[in-house]
Amino acid sequence: MNSKFGTFGFRFSEDQELPLCGLFAVGHEMVDTPSYIWDGNLRNDGPLLLFQYTVAGEGTFELGNHRHQIGPEQAFLAEIPGNHRYYYSAAASQPWEFYFLLFRPALVLQHWKLFIKECGETPQLSSRSLPIRLLYFIFAEAFAGRITDPLLSSSYVYQFVTELCRFPTSNLRNRAEWPTNVRQASEYIEQYYASMISMEQLSEQVSLSKYHLIRRFAEITGMTPNSYLNRVRTEKAMELLRHTDSSIQAIAGQVGYSSGSYFIKAFRNLTGLTPGEFRSGQDNLLYQRLFFD
């Protein structure tokens, strides 16, 4: 992480024929005085979206009637203008160090709202996560004077908000960080996908109630255990469809479905294709593998 501080603004001309994302400012600051306070209802530089990420210390973010202390590896998201305030408290024990990114909502507001729906206005994000690494990179590029045109700045904004949207599902690939019982549940599904019958069976294996297993599993992975089971079965089915001559009915049984019709429906829901279309390439592309979220 770059230890230098500064705030950099961007005011590129708008192109009506080529809509772009509008980068407004990026910064890395350290504050230690109560004079640092921003009121979203009093600002006149909007409409803007603000993403502010704490590196060290702590700041306060008030949204409506709720007050949040924003500590290390935590961010807050705010729309400007809006009913919020953020500030440094005189009672804080150390300076508040943070990075921030300000950009126009055009083209990315729906991405922004989707992330908030999934993670809330005050999410925890590891400093190693892709959105935060990209935030550091954008600041470093601004500090070095390399963000010099609207196309480049637009690409950085769009990449940042898409990485935010990817963040919840990217947890699927960070299994080492999953709680033990969630990891055990996923491993059990992957081993016994062809014979699993009920969530009660799975909950017994990890010593959680069915309700707590479903809630905890969805909270960590972004999907229910049953959705994860269907995903594993579909991936195994794709291997069999591509590399064997087994019938679709036979493959349905091999991956754990009680009927061919239910298998076809589940497969299509995830891939957009029937098993037969996937095998034959009737959509004009003969896929070796399909990737889906």
Automatic annotation (TrEMBL):
<protein>
    <submittedName>
        <fullName>AraC family transcriptional regulator</fullName>
    </submittedName>
</protein>
<keyword id="KW-0238">DNA-binding</keyword>
<keyword id="KW-0804">Transcription</keyword>
<dbReference type="InterPro" id="IPR003313">
    <property type="entry name" value="AraC-bd"/>
</dbReference>
<dbReference type="InterPro" id="IPR018060">
    <property type="entry name" value="HTH_AraC"/>
</dbReference>
<dbReference type="GO" id="GO:0003700">
    <property type="term" value="F:DNA-binding transcription factor activity"/>
</dbReference>
<dbReference type="GO" id="GO:0043565">
    <property type="term" value="F:sequence-specific DNA binding"/>
</dbReference>
<dbReference type="InterPro" id="IPR020449">
    <property type="entry name" value="Tscrpt_reg_AraC-type_HTH"/>
</dbReference>
<dbReference type="Pfam" id="PF02311">
    <property type="entry name" value="AraC_binding"/>
</dbReference>
<dbReference type="InterPro" id="IPR009057">
    <property type="entry name" value="Homeodomain-like_sf"/>
</dbReference>
<keyword id="KW-0805">Transcription regulation</keyword>
<dbReference type="Pfam" id="PF12833">
    <property type="entry name" value="HTH_18"/>
</dbReference>
<dbReference type="InterPro" id="IPR037923">
    <property type="entry name" value="HTH-like"/>
</dbReference>
<feature type="domain" description="HTH araC/xylS-type">
    <location>
        <begin position="183"/>
        <end position="281"/>
    </location>
</feature>
<dbReference type="InterPro" id="IPR050204">
    <property type="entry name" value="AraC_XylS_family_regulators"/>
</dbReference>
